[in-house]
Amino acid sequence: MLNRTPRHEKIIQLIRESGFMPIDELARVLDVTPQTIRRDINQLCEENILRRYHGGASLGSSVENEDYFSRKNKLQSEKAHIADVIAAHIPDNASLFMSIGTTIEAVALALVKSHKNLSIITNNIHVASIVSSRSDYTVMITSGVVRAVDGGITGVATIDFINQFKVDYAVLGASSIEQDGSLLDFDYKEVSVMQAMMKNARIRYLAVDHSKFGRNALVRMGDITEFHALFTDEELSAALGKKLADHGVKWYLADKEDE
Known about the structure:
GO terms for molecular function: DNA binding; DNA-binding transcription factor activity. This protein is of the alpha/beta class. It is 39% helix and 23% strand.
């Protein structure tokens, strides 16, 4: 797990502002050695936040996400902790939308261990497979086109299906959270589905691990203030924490003390 430092955040900020930064220039601005900058960049590249090129780095791709199995195998413990906290905020006998994403799949695993009589509507075939193991659950999988890359279902038929319902909770993820609270993703069709889920849920929960903060993505999904609560695994920046407080959005930090 990458423990994001203030220097990491400054590197991301500088590269975001310029598009590309040479290693020597980053070392000069931050008053550290080029070797230190190379180590920092390597760490940030591991989480797809940056891409390294000869002599420098740019932001990670804004148009293409990591492949499904790479995402599924990353930060598994952190996602499980986030999932446990979310599950504690959902009662038995509730109805839910659950979206595409490996963190949402972790939430599904947490729910089947502890919750009774849930009604779940999902466009994620992996979530559907997990929750359908419970005979007391009602599980509905949306219409639409299945993406071969990750088992996500999107399209106009998906949105039409979702718009037939009004549920208690929407549990959603995002590919990127910018420091101003903007939520971004890579696929406009997936974003349209999540926006329909947000519109048709009484309570909206956002589940993201720390690697999503400051990441680059192309499609605007909405703003973090459109959710009732944020669940994550690391402390927020002061600016983002203030924005949530100003808009009455709660946020919860996954407890890692038992590791």
